[in-house]
């Protein structure tokens, strides 16, 4: 379970085709009002999925990296076939 108090910061990247709203603004509406949030733009890489938001959560945990499951939804699953 992810406790908001354990989140150091969250970084969002959006593909250049997404510009209607800031992902960080959505996260605040969702309840992350005290979490430091930052947005950036992903590079336009040929064959990479369009309309894609990546979310990197910097989370204080005692878990080992190999015990954390990164989640890739829909077409984004093709980005990391090794995970
Ligand atoms: O994990 C992703 O979302 C990817 O697109 C893969 C990958 C990578 O090669 O590790 C590539 C680009 C992103 O900026 C981050 C990670």
UniProtKB/TrEMBL annotation:
PROSITE patterns documented for this protein: CHORISMATE_MUT_1 (PS51167)
Domain of life assignment: Bacteria
Coiled-coil segments: none
Keyword Lipid metabolism: no
One Gene Ontology MF term: chorismate mutase activity
Keyword Isomerase attached: yes
Catalytic reaction equation(s): chorismate = prephenate
One annotated GO biological process: chorismate metabolic process
EC number: 5.4.99.5
Pfam families in the record: CM_1
Alphabetical keyword list: Amino-acid biosynthesis, Aromatic amino acid biosynthesis, Isomerase
PANTHER family membership: CHORISMATE MUTASE, CHORISMATE MUTASE AROH
Name under which the protein is recorded: chorismate mutase
Organism name: Sporomusa ovata
